[in-house]
Amino acid sequence: MIFLLIFLQPPRVNEPPFTLNDGLILFWHTVCDFLKGTAERLPYLLVGVFVFILFWLLGKLLRKVINKVAVQTHAIDDMLADLVSRIVSTLVTILGFLVACVIFFPSFKPGDIIAGLGITSVAIGFAFKDILQNFFAGLFILWRRPFKVGDQIRINSFEGTVEDINC
């Protein structure tokens, strides 16, 4: 019976110094409020997870479709098609994550993150300048295909044979 009275009453905390009983009552009401809030948000969480899984599956499907179309039509190289399909799949998955966040946290605004990325992208760009240059150079090589496996390449005093080209 005392348990029900503690559970149903709002927390009453005495002025300092607190007693052990006050701490237990406050703890119990905090746990109850947490569980109540979790139960109220559970449907939103389930819908958010469902939406994220749908976007993730859509990304996987788009990846397979892009690869299949590229192989059948020979419009672009297989490795470049694989890279493009990975990028598309990742972007769709990220979009699904943002949509799921909006469902679960209604006050969440993806525009705020995008605005923050605008400022930080300059710093990231300078920090990863060499890596990004090499990445885009690799994309350009995949796109243009100036050489193929088995070609002999000589640049200044460096010489070698192309053994493999991958992304």
What do these coordinates show?
The chain has 167 residues and is mainly α. It is built from 5 helices and 2 strands; from the N terminus they run αααααββ. A two-stranded antiparallel ribbon has the order 1-2. Strand 1 and strand 2 (158-161) form a beta hairpin. Helix 2 (20-73) packs antiparallel against helix 3 (78-104). The longest helix has 54 residues, at 20-73. The termini are far apart. The model has no long low-confidence stretch (mean pLDDT 80).
Give a short synopsis of this structure:
The protein is mainly alpha-helical and 167 residues long.
Q: State the secondary-structure class.
A: mainly alpha
Please report the distance between the alpha carbons of the first and last residues. Answer: 68 Å
* CA-based shape: elongated
Instruction: Let me know the number of strands.
Output: 2
Contiguous runs where pLDDT drops below 50 for at least 5 residues: none
Radius of gyration: 28 Å
Largest beta-sheet details: 2 strands, antiparallel
Lateral strand order in the biggest sheet: 1-2
